[in-house]
Request: fold
Amino acid sequence: MDIINADHLGKSFGPVRAVDDVSITVKEGEIFGFLGPNGAGKSTTIRMMTGVLTPDCGSAHICGIDIHKNPLEAKMKMGIIPENGTVYSDLTAEQNILWTAKFYGMDRVSRQKRADEILSYLGLAERRHDVVRTFSKGMRQRISIACAIVPSPPVLFLDEPTGGLDVYSRRLVIDTVRRMNEEGSTVFLTTHNIEEANELCTLISVIDKGRIIVTGSPEKLKKMFDTANYVEIAFEQPVKKEWFSIDGISHAELHGDKWRLYTNDPDKAVKNLAALAVRERLRIFSISTSTPTLEEVFVQLTAGAS
Amino acid sequence: MNIKLFIRSILLVAEKDMRIYNFKGGVVIFGLLFPFIMFLTFFIGRDLDIVLFFPAFLGMMLFFAASSNGLLITPWEKREKTYERLLSLPVTIESIILGDILAGSLFGIIITAITWGAGSLILHLPLANPLLLAVTFLLGGVTFAALGTLLSSPSMSNPSNAMMFSNLLRLSLLFISGIFIPLSRLGSWEFMLTSFSPLTYLVDLFNGAINGNGFYPAVLDITVLVLVILAFIGSTILIQQRNLMKGT
Reply:
């Protein structure tokens, strides 16, 4: 079942076309990653999909409800962590969560129970009565997450949720996203952190200059760039670069103590390297074939679009 | 639209506003101290009947107190970037506006009611029409809370700029209302000028409710204030919807 649906969304700010004909479909239970460099149109798209910004054209549906025609009903189905993770700094951690929970019609007992549970999980139980003004950026972001997940929404939107966070807070955000997904939330995540997307997402779209340039699973995207495959090999003895002038290897580069050998046919390259080792009496210390990282794919895609 | 969700969102926005903004420096200074000091400046050293002019003081108090809250909220939230968080909750532009107006009205009405209560105790103020007084508090609170929300709607993210801009307008309104001069004593062009200010009609209602000497019929005052409320709210919604289109 399609739970998030954006249909031909478009938005211009003056002469700048920030988002151009963006269509996205996310199925129930997926973690969808929306990747793009800074200024690509990620935040504008998520703001239109969450009813914070009115699109020039197109529509967005959450659980089948049009966010711009029925904003109240659609927003009841989602929790949002906006960019910068802002919460009310004059309220306490607990007040922020309880007040947010009231919007979703939770009764007093279930609000309090859920707030207790989330504050403990996020490691903020001790600071529940402190005003958020006194919190660090990471702690504020945790409160922002708490507010988004307090109603256990079917859809969770996160706009750059780990930007500028320390390792512990970043890990906590990722674990929380995973946990919410396991509990049944469909997740829509914008990020420019490729490894985060690789780690979490089941489906990724890459946006650049306001247009989606590719959509697919992380592995499928990497597969698109198979031509960039290489074999990394380390020998116990020193070797000469010219020995790698063999069939299946286009060129060789020394990377630290190992050679990176670029190839269009890794199987053939490995066979020929084994033959080379026998012929030259070399001992292979390690060998591995590598596909491009998602980061490499991303760079190639966005550079290609430029 | 789901009316239950809509009303709940209005009440929750108002709850947040009252918790956070009622006692911010700008609201206390421009909403409470400012009208009090202005009244003292006008009154001290003159041989004026305080009972006669108390309705004007109440009108000014309600005018400043109810409008100050709304003036601060939107620019403050835009600066702190909490406005976007608020918009992402189950609310609409209309429920945010009405919630802000509700919070501003309640603040203005409570402060002015306390002032009226204290004035009644100390000065033994008359009370010609209690029901009209209640209606006056309600209409005055809503009118000027709506004015505050309207004035903060242009996309300003600096609360002090919003306050300065609004004070220019509020003081001009105060000036043209001639609230400390009975309408019957004004010259023709001055009289015409006062008819453009909603504050004139509010003070006239207070005069009618407390001293029983309103200049216009109460129905006329009430009609004007209701129309002004509708105009203020309608304009605010249009501006905020335009902001939502522009992303500001």
About this structure: The first strand of chain A starts at residue 2 and ends at 13. The CA atoms of residues 36 and 207 of chain A lie 5 Å apart.
